[in-house]
Design a protein that fits this description.
It is a multi-pass membrane protein. This protein is mostly helical. It has one domain. It has 4 helices and no strands. Helix 1 crosses helix 2 and helix 3 packs antiparallel against helix 4. It is elongated and about 35 Å long.
């Protein structure tokens, strides 16, 4: 998680790290269910928040938005079937 956080911060910058979290959650959410993606990515939220000084909520909400968008729109997930 440290290396991923460092790469995201370096690529997107500290000001746009919330976009990086949404994009990474969207990519991780394609092959995984919402709950599994959340459990895998939550350590990344804490590390990025600690390194950038951005509040955890400002990083965590885009992560949840990316995961829930994929969960509701991509057909292999149970969300669109309901």
């Amino acid at each position: 998680a440290d290396q991923i956080a460092q790469t995201l911060i370096r690529t997107f910058g500290k000001q746009k790290v919330h976009w990086a979290m949404m994009f990474s959650a969207f990519l991780v959410g394609i092959p995984l269910f919402f709950e599994i993606g959340f459990v895998l990515l939550i350590p990344l939220v804490f590390i990025v928040a600690r390194r950038t000084g951005v509040p955890i909520v400002k990083i965590g909400i885009p992560l949840l938005a990316g995961l829930s968008a994929v969960h509701g729109l991509v057909p292999p997930h149970p969300g669109p079937l309901l």
